[in-house]
Hints:
Number of domains of chain A: 1
Largest interface: A-B, 42 and 39 residues
Radius of gyration of chain B: 21 Å
Largest sheet of chain A: none
Structural class of chain A: mainly alpha
Number of domains of chain B: 1
Oligomer: heterodimer
Distance between the termini of chain A: 53 Å
Structural class of chain B: mainly alpha
Number of helices of chain B: 20
CATH architecture of chain A: Orthogonal Bundle
Amino acid sequence: MGEIIVNTAGAIPLTAYLIVGLIMFFAGIYGFFARKNLIMILISVELVLNAVDINFAAFNRYLFPDQMEGMFYALFVIAIAACETAVAIAIIINVYRKFGNTEVDNIQQMKE
Amino acid sequence: MENFSNFLTMREELSLVVLIVFLLLYDLIAGKRGMRYFQPVAIGLLALHTLITLIPRAEVSAFGGMYTHLPMAGVVKSILNLATLIIFLQAKELFSSSKQRQRRGEYYFLTLVTLLGMYFMVSSGHFLLFFIGLEMASIPLSTLVAMDRRCKKSAEAGAKYILLAAFSSGILLFGISYLYGTTGTLYFADMPPLISANALQIMGFVFFSAGLFFKLSFVPFHLWAGDVYEGAPTNVTSYLSVVSKGAAAFALVVLLFKVFGNLIVQWQGILYAIIILTITVGNLFAIRQDNMKRFLAFSSISQAGYIALGMMGGTALGMNMLVYYLFVYLFSNLAAFGVVISIENKTGKLNISDYNGLYSTNPKLSIVMMLAMFSLGGIPPFAGFFSKFFIFSAAVEQGFYVLVLIAALNTVISLYYYLKVVKAMFLNHSDNPIPTLRTEGYNRVSLVLCTVGILVTGIVSLFVESISAFGFGVQ
């Protein structure tokens, strides 16, 4: 791994990455609650998981550059997010076959 | 280190992997005739595997601390095995139609894979293995929830479950990323001394625990539970409410005690509010339910609150009693589900009002259901009374008098709705009660097992004593 990044004038500080991650995370959470389409909800969840990846990579590169734990964690998160998306898409297709659309408001078989 | 003999330290996991691969091949190779013996083979092998996990062994760690086996985790794995075994016994009529029957193998395979994920979750020593175990447990579970292809409700429940599982693990991971940023390690063994309760760590911990609370369906995070439990096939519902919940509860208690010991003030505060909310709201919602599966879903939410009482004190006694509570809860809840499954498969009826006059036609089923309700409600001398009593005493020992008082008051409220079911079966009259039905053979075995469990596990002190040998407190 590279040398420790000293915060000189031109370099992007760690907090900038963290703020990007934080904004992505809360954008994902907002989307999860506000969106009405299952596919869009799924994309929002992906946004949350990608925010996590940014955090891990930035922390690893800036604070602990002599070991790779954070990078590997981010890789595993990407892989598992892919599995999750595959299964979620399969289930959403199943919903589409049953209900004819993927709008949340129409998928209400159970009350309360 | 670079030695494959490390794998041999994962005895339980290895044995389960062998079982899974064998069943997968059996499903692939066996023809129509062979498939007739699929369920007995699966049950027999799982029983064998349970015996293997029952053999106690000392604490070991492998792969540089990535995998840690705690003696208590061995006990929990055996409990999860036993619950899965009982659920398999009840599974035969899940495949009553011939189209469903072709997919019989998938059910057992997917269930065992989620069990393997829970094993990893329970005995992980690193946040990576913990996360992989968690996902291994929740992704196949969502496919199980959506398994009933004929049913619209099942598809809806599956979509809700997978999206919430992904969302909650996203929140959990976000918390882990801050914990990593502030400590520089992800090993459970290295992290505790580096946690000094600074603001970023507390924020990371709150996100992390919120993700786990979703899985456990504690109250502000419980909104998925009612719909998913109602929509899933009944067998899968019982798996969700016993095995999945038990594994997550134990993983949480290990993490709180081993890793977040320095944050004990913070997590006690969080749990204090969560326990009160979980028990009360779970109870109040359970009162209004008429659908039996939804009713048991809310009852299991409130039971999760009692389970969390065991974590409050941060003592070895609390952990022992938590595991004992899971052990007793398994029998009580699976007995109730066994009766529900038996009636649903023969008549398709699921509402409490359908159970009116059940005693006059099906006395045995009614009595099993009554015992289950008494045990869940905590009436002596059934096992549920002892588990509640012990978990209360573990919390009182640490001085949580008000909390225990609220929990005890809620026990009274819960008696109202548990007894409502008993009243429907024994006292209410119905012009056309559910006809006399013959429970399927394996399911009858499971009901006998559960009844014996309800009657015996409380009175015989062997169980609580043998569990008590392994607990540990906040380190």
